[in-house]
Write a structure and sequence with these properties.
InterPro entries: GTP-bd, P-loop_NTPase. This protein is of the alpha/beta class. It is built from nine helices and six strands; from the N terminus they run H-H-H-H-E-H-E-E-H-E-H-E-H-E-H. It has a single domain, classed as 3-Layer(aba) Sandwich (Rossmann fold), CATH 3.40.50. The protein is globular. The structure holds guanosine-5'-triphosphate and magnesium ion.
Length: 244
Amino acid sequence: MHGLLLLGHSHEVIREYVQDPAAMKLLQEFQLQNVHLLQEFEKLRQDIEDQKIESFEDLQQYDQKGAEALVKLATQTTPLQMQGRNIGFFGLTSTGKSTMINKLLDREVAKTGAGETTTKIEPYDGKGYRLYDIPGRNDDTTYFSMEYVAFWKGLTARVVLLSTSMKEMTKVFRLLDAINLKYDIVVNKFDLIKQDERENFKAQIKQEIIQCGLKGVNNVWFVSSQNPRQFPDWMTMVDYLTSQ
Ligand SMILES: Nc1nc2c(ncn2[C@@H]2O[C@H](COP(=O)(O)OP(=O)(O)OP(=O)(O)O)[C@@H](O)[C@H]2O)c(=O)[nH]1
Ligand SMILES: [Mg+2]
């Protein structure tokens, strides 16, 4: 039995597949309690769309007031009340989110492969935690909805996957930083980096975090979800994500 959610475009608000009636009720209650805030969010999202702004980073650059309004609304948004530990996996298409979820659960539940594979948020239950597989395109302004912000805020951990550079996800990091949410970074496919280049590569990623001035980085792990045992960070990561 899975719950929540998806969201995305505010018009579509809850896209299909809330199969769990309790989760459905939770989301409906949430919407009823937040009618005004939802309207403000919708108006802002519409403005942003009209200006053809595609990310929070662009919003900060071209519409300072809009960015401030978004941060204010996001701050006022109450986190979605979810039971237990809830971990969301973000990252561009093909960074290995679904592969990682399968390995964490030790079951082939999520579809993997080249190109855009996962097309909607999909929850998978583990022992004492729930993992959310999130489609690759998650930096888009279409996600500037209140429900999505509430979801981000309700998660126990936000894990952001990358494969080559922090720059893949700066748009997401800017928004998370602006609304004071912490995140963990997984540099996946570390096996593809040549052995004698790995230390330099690690240093490059750490340098980028400093250069970008990111505030919310909790942890950085270098792993291979295809072959978890290859790098010790995997176990550190699993302990961190599944404990407490
Ligand atoms: N070499 C290597 N390949 C990997 C690793 N992790 C995943 N892959 C491969 O990368 C491809 C994409 O993996 P997925 O898990 O489907 O990626 P995703 O992030 O879920 O992609 P979307 O669902 O499209 O957002 C697959 O062919 C995986 O086998 C890894 O650590 N090393
Ligand atoms: Mg996927």
